[in-house]
Design a protein that fits this description.
The protein folds into 3 domains: about 230 residues, Rossmann fold (3-Layer(aba) Sandwich); about 80 residues, Ubiquitin-like (UB roll) (Roll); about 90 residues, NADH-ubiquinone oxidoreductase 51kDa subunit, iron-sulphur binding domain (de novo design (two linked rop proteins)), CATH 1.20.1440. The chain has about 450 residues and is an alpha/beta fold. A 4-stranded parallel β-sheet has the order 3-2-1-4, with helices on both faces. The protein contains 16 helices and 8 strands. Helix 13 packs antiparallel against helix 16, helix 14 runs antiparallel to helix 15 and helix 15 packs antiparallel against helix 16. NDH-1 shuttles electrons from NADH, via FMN and iron-sulfur (Fe-S) centers, to quinones in the respiratory chain. Keywords: 4Fe-4S, Flavoprotein, FMN, Iron, Iron-sulfur, Metal-binding, NAD, Quinone, Translocase.
Length: about 450
C-alpha cells in the first residue's frame, strides 16, 4: 500500500495553495529534513506566530478557521484550546500529541510523521505558543519505529537550530518536546487513557469532568490534539482563515482538507489529501480506481473499524462529518475500507469484535463483559451453531453498549459496525442459526438500528 498523496497516474499537482499538508512531500517517499523543510517555507508560520501575533490571536485564528480534530471525534480545535486556563500564575501546562494511531485501517498520521516530521513539530511549536505550554509530548504508537526514529532526529535538528528549547526565536518563550513511545494499547487513543499511560499508570480512561484542560498530566492543565490536527496549524497561521475555509467543497460544514484513503481489494489503495466535501464515489472511483477485476463492492466503511458499514448506494455522500451522518454513520478517520462480495459479514464482524474485546481496558461492565459476549455469539453463528434469539441478543448488546451507556467511547465504536452489518446483511447472520436450535429468550426487546 502506498503512503502517498498522488492520485491515479500521478495526475494531481500538489501545491501550497491546495495541499497544505502534503505539498512538501518528496516524490521518492524519503523524509523531509530541516534544511529542505525550511527551503520549502518551513517554520515561516512559526516565525510569524512568534513575532507578529499575540498568543490569544493564534487561538482565535484557529477557531475562526473552523479547524476540527482529525482523530475521529471532530471536536473544534480552537474551542478546545479556549478551555485552557487564562490564569497567568499557572506556569506548568502541557501539550500532548496523540500519535497512538491504532484504529484498524488507518495510517494517515504515520505518513505525516515518517515523511514530514518537522510539519508536526512546527504545528506543536505554534500551538504551544498559543497555549502557553512549556513542555510537549508526542505519544507515539510503539509499533511505529520508523516514525519514532524520524521524529527524534527532527527534534534534535530543531533544537540545534534554536526552534526548540530555551528562548525560541528570541521570544523568551521556552518549549521542550519529547517523543514517548507507548506499549501498544488501542485504548490509549482516548485522551485521558493516554494521559494515564504517559504518567506510568494503567491505561484506563478517566472520569470527565474534570477535563484535561483543567486537570491533565500530573494534575496540570493539558491539551491533547491529534497529529493531523496539529499539522494543519502552520498553514492556517501562514495563509489565513479565508483561504483555509475556501479549500473545502461547497456543501461541506467542515473546513480545509483531509487525508483520506481507501484500502481493500481496490485497484489503487492509498492515501490522498482531498478537500472536505468530495464524495465517497470520487474517492472510491477516481482515486482508488474502483474494485479489482473479478471483485464487486459489497459494502464499505468510511473511516476505520469503529464506523458503521455503508452500501454502494451511499457512495454519493459527501465526505465530511455531517455528510456521512446523513447516511447513518460517522466520518471517523476518513480512511475507508472496501469489502468485496467474497467476504462473509459474520466472519468479518467476529474478527473485528475480537479486536475490540481484546483492547477493552476492562474498567466498565458493559464493555468488559458485553464485547466478549458478542464474540461468543458471532463465533457460534460463524460455525453454524447459533441459536434462535442470538441475533436479537446481538442487537440488544448494540443498544446496551451504545453512546452514553459506557465509561468511554470504546464500546459504542466497537458495536457500531455490528449493528449496521446486521441491518444490511441480516440473512448472513440468520444462516448461522442451527436448524434444530432451541429458542433462547433475547437479551432485550430488539433494537432497530438506524430507525
Amino acid at each position: 500500500m502506498t503512503l502517498t498523496s498522488f492520485g491515479p497516474a500521478n495526475r494531481i499537482q500538489r501545491s501550497a495553495e491546495t495541499h497544505p499538508l502534503t505539498w512538501r512531500l518528496r516524490d521518492d517517499g524519503e523524509a523531509v529534513w530541516l534544511d529542505e523543510y525550511q527551503a520549502k517555507n518551513g517554520y515561516a508560520a512559526a516565525r510569524k506566530a512568534f513575532s507578529d501575533m499575540a498568543q490569544d490571536d493564534i487561538v482565535q485564528t484557529v477557531k475562526d478557521a473552523g479547524l476540527k480534530g482529525r482523530g475521529g471525534a471532530g471536536f473544534p480545535t480552537g474551542v478546545k484550546w479556549g478551555l485552557m486556563p487564562k490564569d497567568e500564575s499557572i506556569n506548568i501546562r502541557y501539550l500532548l500529541c496523540n500519535a497512538d494511531e491504532m484504529e484498524p485501517n488507518t495510517w494517515k498520521d504515520r505518513m505525516l510523521m515518517e515523511q514530514l516530521p518537522h510539519l508536526l513539530i512546527e504545528g506543536m511549536l505554534i500551538s504551544a505558543r498559543a497555549l502557553k505550554t512549556y513542555r510537549g509530548y508526542i505519544f507515539l504508537r510503539g509499533e511505529y519505529t520508523t516514525a519514532a526514529k524520524h521524529l527524534n532526529r527532527a527534534v534534535e535538528e530543531a533544537k540545534a537550530a534554536g526552534l526548540l528549547g530555551k528562548n525560541i526565536l528570541g521570544s523568551g518563550f521556552d518549549f521542550e518536546l519529547f517523543v514517548h513511545t507507548g506499549a501498544g494499547r488501542y485504548i490509549c487513543g482516548e485522551e485521558t487513557a493516554l494521559i494515564n499511560s504517559l504518567e506510568g499508570r494503567r491505561a484506563n480512561p478517566r472520569s470527565k469532568p474534570p477535563f484535561p484542560a483543567a486537570v491533565g498530566v500530573w494534575g496540570k492543565p493539558t491539551c491533547v490534539n491529534n497529529v493531523e490536527t496539529l499539522c494543519n496549524v502552520p498553514a492556517i497561521i501562514a495563509d489565513g482563515v479565508d483561504w483555509y475555509k475556501s479549500l473545502a467543497r461547497d456543501g461541506s460544514e467542515d473546513m480545509g482538507t483531509k487525508l483520506m484513503g481507501f484500502s481493500g481489494k481496490v485497484k489503487n489503495p492509498g492515501l490522498w489529501e482531498l478537500p472536505f466535501g468530495v464524495t465517497g464515489r470520487e474517492l472510491f472511483e477516481d482515486y482508488a480506481g474502483g474494485m479489482r477485476d473479478g471483485y464487486t463492492l459489497k459494502c464499505w466503511q468510511p473511516g476505520g473499524a469503529g464506523t458503521g458499514f455503508l452500501l454502494p448506494e451511499h457512495l454519493d455522500a459527501q465526505m465530511y462529518a455531517g455528510g456521512i451522518a446523513k447516511v447513518g454513520t460517522r466520518m471517523g478517520t476518513g480512511l475507508a475500507m472496501a469489502v468485496d462480495d467474497s467476504v462473509n459479514m459474520v466472519s468479518l464482524l467476529r474478527n473485528m469484535e475480537e479486536f475490540f474485546s481484546r483492547e477493552s481496558c476492562g474498567f466498565c461492565t458493559p464493555c468488559r463483559d458485553g464485547l466478549p459476549w458478542s464474540v461468543k455469539l458471532l463465533r457460534a453463528l460463524e460455525n453454524g451453531e447459533g441459536q434462535a434469539g442470538d441475533i436479537e441478543t446481538l442487537l440488544g448488546l448494540v443498544g446496551f453498549l451504545g453512546p452514553g451507556k459506557t465509561f468511554c467511547a470504546h464500546a459504542p465504536g466497537a458495536v457500531e459496525p455490528l449493528g449496521s452489518a446486521i441491518k444490511y446483511f441480516r440473512p448472513e447472520f440468520e444462516a448461522g442459526i442451527a436448524p434444530t436450535s432451541a429458542v433462547v429468550p433475547p437479551l432485550a426487546k430488539p433494537i432497530v438500528v438506524g430507525a
